[in-house]
Amino acid sequence: YILQLHSNSDKGDGSVKYILTGEGAGTIFIIDDTTGDIHSTKSLDREQKTHYVLHAQAIDRRTNKPLEPESEFIIKVQDINDNAPKFTDGPYIVTVPEMSEMGTSVLQVTATDADDPTYGNSARVVYSILQGQPYFSVDPKTGVIRTALHNMDREAREHYSVVIQAKDMAGQVGGLSGSTTVNITLTDVNDNPPRFPQKHYQLYVPESAQVGSAVGKIKANDADTGSNADMKYTIINGDGSGVFSISTDKETREGILSLKKPLNYEKKKSYTLNIEGANTHLDFRFSHLGPFKDVTMLKIIVGDVDEPPLFTMPSYVMEVYENAKIGTAVGTVTAQDPDTDNNLVRYFIDHKTEEDRYFTIDASTGTIKTAKIFDREETPWYNITVAASEIDNPELVSHVPVGVRILDVNDNPPELAGDDDVVICENAKSGQVVQTITATDKDNSANGARFHFSLDEGFSLNPNFTLRDNEDNTASILTKRRRYSRTSQDIYYLPVLISDGGVPPLSSSSTLTIRVCACERDGRVRTCHAEAFLSSAGLSTGALIAILLCVVILLAIVVLFVTLRRSKKEPLIISEEDVRENVVTYDDEGGGEEDTEAFDITALRNPSAAEELKYRRDVRPELKPAPRHHPTSSLDSIDVQEFIKQRLAEADLDPSVPPYDSLQTYAYEGHRSEAGSISSLDSATTHSDEDYNYLGDWGPEFKKLAELYGEIESERTT
User: Fold this and answer.
1) Is residue 233 part of a domain?
2) Which of 2, 288, 375, 453 has the most neighbouring CB atoms within 10 Å?
3) What whole-number distance in Å separates Cα of residue 614 and Cα of residue 717?
């Protein structure tokens, strides 16, 4: 039951009917239309709807007319504590540094209550901690979680699970509650110094260990993690600090001990090292917990190993003269067994390279001897490798490089350097330097640095040339007379003797070829003998062959072209089967005015010169017509049109021409032109009266032309 509606018009006789409309009318709220009592049909939830607006009206049951105006009323839903507080963001994960001060804020949690905060204490929430004491605490009003202990150590405990409760009704009895979990992790700080597990260590290292190799590891423990546990290892003192070195492995945080110098058991059997491990990232807030480093002592025991023989020198350099006899001693290498047993040593050469085959070695003494004859000018240096092993243990072998320098012997005479072909001008003066010559010697400077030049004894009194030693390893060729004639003698040979300053001195003779050439006034060579000319022009034998080959190829192309052109020439008379009208083309050049075999061109050009009809002399006609005579008087008066008609009639009646149309060209201009004919066709029968004597007055340039026309005039007169 909620309420009752009543109208003043209601007499209690049931004549008034009550009607309810609005939110929830008929579904949530129902009304008794006779008494006006209103009831709810289901439970109401304030968190879903806080109030309902309804309209009520009283009407006459008989007439259905309203007895009063419609009235509005509101039904408000009163709140009760039916919703517990909730943590919408839980569960929580949070971190806090270890060793934090007590009361350090960790996290603030918030719970919400759906009840009406304005009515009673249904939505008044109070926070409390159910799990996590005594390490953490929570503010009951704000929900702020704080540390509750001093110096919480991550190394002792790292993870904590704290349960926080929120209760409404201000925490009173009967209030509803909700809870959430907060997972708290302590983060690391550098509050723990490194410590070596032991104060003394011992390490065994064989003396055969290679320099630069790792021989051992050592590690200091640090309870911290990450960069707080990074450390660096150093050797602070000890007699082995110069023999060993230590480095830090950043991944494993171990100290790697390496060998800096080779070990020798026979010289030193043990070493002592003091090794320090220190943190690289310090937190000065915790410096009172230090020092953040630790020191330990490491004793290294050197193990004895059977070692290969050791040479007294890391490398050897020896010398031997070239041309030395086979078996000549070059030098001696020495090796000893470094072990205490001091076993005997055997020497040998592997002969793996060609250079090793030039030498042999005494297996017992290590003396190296020559096995072949040397030539310093061919190979001045040899590099070989000598090996030594113990007789009792041949597998232990050591090697040493040996360099052998070949010393020079004066065994090569000096030679003339450069070209031995010299050019001299015909107009050379006496005492003129023709050429400066030099010499070369394959021997080194000790056996050939100073050269002496002279003429061969048999040609020392040469009347044409002489030689002057410049005493600077050069010599000059000088002329002894003036002017040389190329026509009388174009080549001179001059033998030159060259000796060196070696012990013993060697000499050689070379012949200079001196060519006489015609030169310009400034000394440039104009022409020489054919061979000298080609040489000065820079044409070698290969260039001449190439030029001749090009000329032969061009001649072959020309001959081939002419042959092909002749083979493709068409016949003068086309086949009889071809009866079409054609223009006959004669691809045959005539012989000019002297050609009288084919036809007389004069008859075509000058009708007055043709006394009678002339036929071709190179073709015999089958039927010879009767000759026709034309009076000279008619030819003199004939015009061009009549002339062409006559020639057309003659061509039609001529049985010697081809039996179809042909094209004939007449260059006849007509008769009795005032200008006269400029053609040279009539010059065969007429002579010019021109006088060419005036050509002699034109000067010496036209002398030949005047003589030519003078001879023509004399022939005409004769």
Assistant:
1) yes
2) 453
3) 33
Let me know: does 322 contact 407? Beta carbons within 8 Å.
yes
Backbone CA torsion sign across 527, 528, 529, 531: negative
The sign of the dihedral angle between the CA atoms of 531, 536, 542, 545 is negative
Alpha carbons 431 and 30: distance in angstroms, whole number: 157
Q: Which of 522, 525, 499 is nearest to 422 (CA)?
A: 525
Round to whole Å and give the CA distance between 304 and 207.
Answer: 6
Tens-digit pLDDT profile for residues 455-498 = 877 666 788 888 888 888 889 989 988 888 888 888 888 888 88
Residue 359 sits in the same domain as residue 424: no
pTM value is 0.44
* pLDDT tens-digit map of 171-225: 788 788 999 999 999 999 998 999 999 999 999 999 889 999 999 999 999 999 9
Whether 65 and 11 map to the same domain: the answer is: yes
Nearest 5°: phi and psi at 696? -70, -20
* The three-state (H, E, C) secondary structure of 646-701, written as one string: HHHHHHHHCCCCCCCCCCCCCCCCCCCCCCCCCCCHHHHCCCCCCCCHHHHHHCHH
- Domain range holding 277? 200-303
Cβ atoms of 169 and 124 closer than 8 Å: yes
Work out whether the CA dihedral 532, 533, 538, 540 comes out positive or negative.
negative
Strands 293-303 and 200-206: parallel
Q: Residue 300 in contact with residue 209, Cβ under 8 Å?
A: no
- Given a contact cutoff of 8 angstroms between Cβ atoms, the answer to whether 189 and 235 are in contact is no
Q: Which residue has the tokens 């190993």?
A: 305
User: Strand 507-519 to strand 421-425: parallel, antiparallel, or no bridges (unpaired)?
Assistant: parallel
Measure Cα distances from 51 to 46, 75, 119, 299, 410 in Å.
Answer: 8, 5, 15, 91, 133
